[in-house]
């Protein structure tokens, strides 16, 4: 199922003794989707309550939903049903939103969640293709999650939630599940592999992803401050666009051509040091040929470096 020299295989070997970590990475995406379903139906069935709670739990866990692409699963069948099950949960939550907003005749949110459902479906189709049906094409995970990343995510969430919890429990604001918290953590995680990106496509995708996330967060905070609907709409649209580029970046990272190989990285480092060596060689060679002019002027086998 995995090539011996691949990054994913090395990741498996290095984490083979950490069963708790492997189980955690497999279970957390399901917890994230379960929280999403809970928040969807809780909001629409308790919309008249004044608790102010809408999407806090799913917003906290949403980062792990996006990390399902690197869950270490060896069996293709298990991998297929794993991602397919997560897609089903995602679509159930999205359809729930559409049904409830249809009853309220809220055209904006109906169109928004229909687009979310389409984008999620396309992403899951690509994800299943890359992880299940294209093993013979050399596709593999090039940006795997490691143990230290999990603790880094949790520490970042603690800081972010200290800011967002008062917002989520504000009874005057409707704060459904938002992925901006996940995106803010993810682009830091993706940026760790920036030096390995080959070409412009991966780098441009990451830059656009960061810009759209920043725009979404900015307009969201303006909406919180001014309570103007236009900023909320702008934030929701930017968030959807950011999700598209996040999904695109995840799919692109499966392809080896988007990354600099280890051999090329070594050659690049060696080329950085070779000019200095070449200059020294030329100087030594010139000095040597000056000393040997009287004896080697008729020789045709002199090499110049």
Automatic annotation (TrEMBL):
Residues 292-305 have a biased composition (Polar residues). Residues 266-305 are annotated as: Disordered. The chain crosses the membrane at residues 20-43, 55-73, 80-102, 108-130, 150-169, 181-199, 206-224, 230-255. Keywords: Membrane, Transmembrane, Transmembrane helix. The keyword Hydrolase does not apply. It comes from the Eukaryota. The lineage of its organism: Eukaryota, Metazoa, Spiralia, Gnathifera, Rotifera. Signal peptide: none annotated. The keyword Transmembrane applies. This is Uncharacterized protein.
